[in-house]
Fold each of these.
Amino acid sequence: MSADGAGGVSRSPVERYTDRMVAALQRLEASDDPNLTFSRLIDVMGRSSHRLLILLFTLLNMLPGPPGFGGTIAWTTFGIALAMIFGWPIRLPALIGDRKLPLSLLIKLSERVAVAARYAARFSRPRLKWLTGAAATIPFGIFVMAISVVMTIPIPFINAIPNVGLCIMSFSMLNRDGVGLLAGLVVCLLGLTVAAAALFGAFELASTAIESIR
């Protein structure tokens, strides 16, 4: 941790990131053009803020949305992770980038995340930092891409646990917390196991139904 702000208040890395996220969205809301799209959100946060944007989009995937919203979020997360692996600035195709986002809802979400980050900082702190450093960028990015592909499967609720795990991992990467990263990895793997079991069950049910018709 380091001292920041008035009175030298000590804040964790993730608190500084989430405060930055809230401030950027509030500035956008106060601007002459407060309309928010996927591409503008990336512009506001910074086209090279890969880790912060992965956290933000995993949080967005927890919000209810119209059909296809979750898949759009998942493919966007995939693209951000791919750009992170190659060190590219993030650019989205117009098909995704021009989609609108609810700014007021996103501000409320980000404010709650900032509060949660302050509480989480009591338990999460920089440790095993080698698991979250620059050398971890490629393995983390590949894992995010793999989870994102799974989350495009349009079956309700099976993506919730992997998404929570990915959120924990992203939070921990920002906070340089290797222990938290491993905890998020376990949650993701548990979610993938549940998703695989659900898909297998759906396949078996469909096969049984087809056989009974025959």
Amino acid sequence: MTDYYVAEPAPVVAPTPAAWQNAGAPRRPRAARTRRYAMTPPTYFAVEYAINPWMDVSKPVDVQVALAQWENLRHTYLKLGHRVDLVEPVPGLPDMVYAANGGFVTHDVAVVARFRYPERAGETQAYGDWMASAGYRPVSTRHINEGQGDLLMVGEKVLAGYGFRTDLRAHPEISAALRMPVVSLELVDPRFYHLDTALAVLDDDTIAFYPPAFSEAAQEQLHGLFPDAIVVGSADAYVLGLNVVSDGLHVVLPSAATGFAAQLREAGFEPVGVDLSELLKGGGSVKCCTLEVFV
């Protein structure tokens, strides 16, 4: 396996809490930007253990259905004009399909995930090796980080979740490695165990989120930073409707999140619904299956 260097910590941004506001994202012209994604086919997908509330080992998984749904997602990105790199799946790593958790890649740096649960530990090497082979400089952290599951870039900063998976102590390490400010946000509902299950980045200054998934302090932070954020309701949040991928105009989201799709249209975005119901059995959806490579 590639040797990684460990980043030295840097200060983490702590925004001043602001008063609760929710005007909703104003309708204005939106513009798509060509993106680069990495995805791993669900060749070995299964629910063999339960490490989040969505996983139930008693419910059978149809791998052929999962593959078809995943392939439809990949083709959706291609039809929208985006690039999709493929990462080779590894036997014995059933959750590797959730590529977003593999790390955080931007410019020439790749922060490689360090997983909380031993069942996923082997993904660190698999994704680290892929990042190195793709020409990126792998960086490890001393503390747990679960990649873009808990690290979402918006504009020139990174929103970073903690509370269930990623360790708060990893945030300064990530800030140092990426040379970007990091905003720490506490998650409090185990159903929303990663940041990308409760918050969606829509463009460089627009987000959507589900407030009950966050601590009161985190809610105030988000409202202070994004006063026009789209606040999503429980019905859409409970189908992982916020687990989306946006190119700034088109928002690829779970097709069951119909209320959120209407909110997106009202704000000037173009929702693109896809069915990932089989992969939802493992606790992931659109964003979980998509590692964005920022260039």
Amino acid sequence: MDAVDGEPGTVRPGGRTARVRESVLRAAGDALVEQGFDGLDLADVARRAEVGKTTVYRRWSTTAGLVADLLTDMAEQSEPRSDTGSLDGDLRANARLVVRTLTDARQGPLFAAVVAAATCDPRTAEALHRFYAVRIEEWAGCVDAAAGRGELPPGTDPHEVIRAVSAPLYYRLLASGDPLDETVADRAAAAAAAAARAGVYVS
């Protein structure tokens, strides 16, 4: 049986159910990149995934629920934070990971499509907020560690520092269209580190 109780993203199915979920989420990502949120259709996703429509409708029920679970999966698959031993090294690693993700042939368009969907669908927006909260929380640890080593002023808000690293990178992806590369990543990391040392993010 493929039935899974609970809201999408709240369970970790195993066996055949896990394989079905993987296939459906991959198909949903493909469809989202190709057609956008408005063109996302559960029946089409089921066809792409070679899964019965009733399974897809029973498990996810709506396209918003499907995108929410897709974001949960993306958070689960994201690389863990680095630990280079220095604030500069850790923030640079974070920025470069963001750039690699946003310039990836699949992940870049997928993130852009999800962000666009979140502007008009509250459930997708909520799922996107949860996704970034998870990622920011994980990388905030490197800022806490830097503060513990005396690299940053006491009271530095770690979440604000991590947001400052990625914000200009997402701006380039979603607004300006300017190039994204490691040079841009390193500059964003250095700017966030300098601001943090200057006490800009002290609560």
